[in-house]
């Protein structure tokens, strides 16, 4: 059995992770408004990190509009969900996003198409998943009003936190076979398998304790979280490797930036939303 590396950093990592988990849990449980505010706060932080790396010389106007476009998607989605599906409001983020290259071209004399495309990424990468998280939290009732529940989204967050922890510990302890060494040298097949199995057992056990978790969800959701969470993590690692950086930021000691913390959940949410929508 291998010794877990960087043991001295675990308390710092655990402490900052606990603050983050407490913020997400408290916001989701308090109300739909606090959840939407915290999600928008996360988007602002992630936009700052992402644009600072991939569009550092973009004009101020283009950068601001990129942030507004990313924020407009969950905001418009929140309004749509609260009004039981008034979809025309969703055209606002769409129009803002497709206008970004033109805004950048007009406001920046050194127009670079690559940076113009980077300005469009936050809407898809950050805004879309967190809008879907908000949408999953609302269910229209018989009268056509939207009823908010924190539990569908909170359960996904809990599963990814559990999977990350289990995969990290089993990978550090037993990991020998590299999963995708060209992108993320530290990830191992053993960590992936350990994370999947332990998260699945935790989820099934929780379904026998909490009535709100069906056995089908307890079996399917951990698999979606484990598979697509790993893809999301690898995607973020590929972006960091292409930019030759270790972390997107340093706001969370032991984790890196906000995008480093949310990279998995951002890729998971669209797939979970599709599952909930279909089944």
Textual characterization of the structure:
This protein has 279 residues and is mainly alpha-helical. Helices cover 73% and strands 5% of the residues. The strands form two sheets. The protein has a two-stranded antiparallel sheet. A two-stranded antiparallel ribbon has the order 3-4. The chain is globular. Residues 1-7 have low confidence and may be disordered.
Could you list some keywords that capture this structure?
9 helices, 279 residues, two-stranded antiparallel sheet, disordered N terminus, two-stranded antiparallel ribbon, mainly alpha
Outline of the structure:
This protein is mainly alpha-helical and 279 residues long. Helix content is 73%, strand content 5%. The N and C termini lie far apart (42 Å).
Q: Roughly what fraction of the amino acids lie in strands? A: 5-15%
Q: What structural class should be given to the helix and strand makeup?
A: mainly alpha
Main beta-sheet strand count, sense and barrel state: 2 strands, antiparallel
* Global morphology: globular
**Fraction in helix:** over 70%
The residue ranges in which pLDDT falls below 50 over 5 or more consecutive positions are: 1-7
**Number of helices, counting only DSSP H or I runs of 4 residues or more:** 9
Query: What is the string of helix and strand elements?
Result: HHHHHEEHEEHHH
What Rg is obtained from the alpha carbons, in whole angstroms?
19 Å
The average pLDDT score comes to: 86
Distance between the termini: 42 Å
Number of strands: 4
Q: State the strand order across the main sheet.
A: 1-2
